[in-house]
Amino acid sequence: MSAAADKPPLADDKPPLAAGRLALGLLLAPALLWLGLLIVLPHVNLLLLSFHDSSGGGDPVWSSTQYATFFGEPLYWNTFVRTATMSLLATALALVLAFPVAWTIAKVARGRTRSWLFAAILIPFWASELVRTLGWIILLRQGGILPTLLHTLGLAGPDLDLLYSDATILVGLVYGSLLFMLVPLINVLDTLDNSLIEAAYDLGAGRANILRRIIIPHAAPGIAAGCLMVFMLTLGNYLTPVVLGGKDSMWFTDQIYTQFITRFNWEQGSAFAFLLLLLSSLLVWLGLRLTGQRLASAMRQT
């Protein structure tokens, strides 16, 4: 037997398993604490609180009254469906608007032009959401910049007010979430090999065929990531619908705010919040299943 075979293994060849696990635990501890304390525990508390009923006085009892109230009141149900529909529409509009911009930045612009274009889409988001939403009020209110311009051109009367409508809410939602659609699209389109498009042109493929068979399949993870982000942001948005839509905006987050802050009905507010969470999770899962995408691959594009 050789001397090399008889040589005992060095103690420092591999770190001890216990030390490796301890180091991994210390690295994961902040993330696990953040997830547990700020996400898991509050949602578990919401779920438990939503099944409490303290309307009779005394100690709360377990009950599904809060959910029965939601399904039995047309106002709550209609607002819930309207919020989901408007959020889906805002997501679709954001995708339609963002895709050509992302293609221009990723594939058409070069050098400093590309950097300037990317900076141009980032600059508005240096301001807070409140400031950007108030900017839309200045632009669209009666006597504001856009109504005054339309009146000057003879296209509208002097009392034109573009605020407090569904179209205004959609404009605000799309504007506020457009960046979260653009970034994953730019990332995924930047990885598309230009030679594939050139080869398709050489083989006689038209633009529509190239878009359908090469560009969109390649961009599918970015599309899924962008739609996922925009939908969740618009579904849970409170400020934009309330400010641009007024007191009659009929947005479900406004109903949640009313239950928690105005009526101090935490049980009903918890039920509403959990229903909104279920709706968001269900539609995200359904969207991923329909597009054949995985959540992990979509999130890598964000």
Automatic annotation (TrEMBL):
Protein name from the UniProt record: ABC transporter permease
Top-rank taxon of the source lineage equals: Bacteria
Organism for this UniProt entry? Amphibiibacter pelophylacis
